[in-house]
Design goal:
Length: about 170
């Protein structure tokens, strides 16, 4: 398995990957499948314009994108001590094989030494115990819960907020 920063050249494959994740797990992401499909590929190209403080990693099995995770650092002076993990997803056929953990470890290794970055936050759907467990195994701790964070046609989804403190 290869893990690397996705580039604009990966836009088509990432777009298909993103549509699948949104369709398969609507309660795990704030963006909907319908919104993403309507917007088309152009936002994917923009999203894949990486810097050291904003990037999306892809996990590849051969030439197939099987997982992704994003990182975004806050840009305002008073918020620059925080970064966020976004859009974590692995294809069902590679789950429980260490792909998600490898993606997160790679992300953390890339951002740990960013000057002034003190914490990394994420949100995880309360009904996704496997993801919660993975994050906890890497040192993320809960700091809050947002009830009814997402509203789906048939239900609400609570979101657990987690943080990994990088510096004391």
């Amino acid at each position: 398995m290869e893990i690397r920063v996705l580039t604009e050249a990966d836009a088509e494959e990432y777009y298909a990957h993103r549509l699948r994740m949104l369709k398969d797990h609507p309660g795990a992401f704030a963006t909907s499948y319908e919104e993403t499909k309507e917007e088309g590929m152009e936002p994917m190209v923009e999203r894949l314009q990486s810097t050291g403080e904003k990037f999306i990693l892809g996990a590849f099995a051969g030439d197939r994108l099987v997982g992704s995770v994003g990182f975004l650092r806050q840009q305002r002076n008073k918020l620059r001590h925080k970064g966020f993990v976004l859009g974590m997803y692995t294809h069902p056929d590679v789950r429980r094989q260490g792909v998600g953990k490898a993606l997160l470890e790679n992300l953390l290794a890339r951002v740990r030494n960013l000057p002034g970055l003190e914490q990394i936050q994420l949100g995880v759907a309360a009904d996704n115990p496997a993801a919660h467990s993975l994050y906890a195994s890497l040192g993320f701790a809960e700091f809050g819960r947002e009830r009814e964070a997402l509203k789906l046609p048939d239900r609400y989804v609570d979101e657990i907020h987690m943080v990994l403190k990088l510096k004391p």
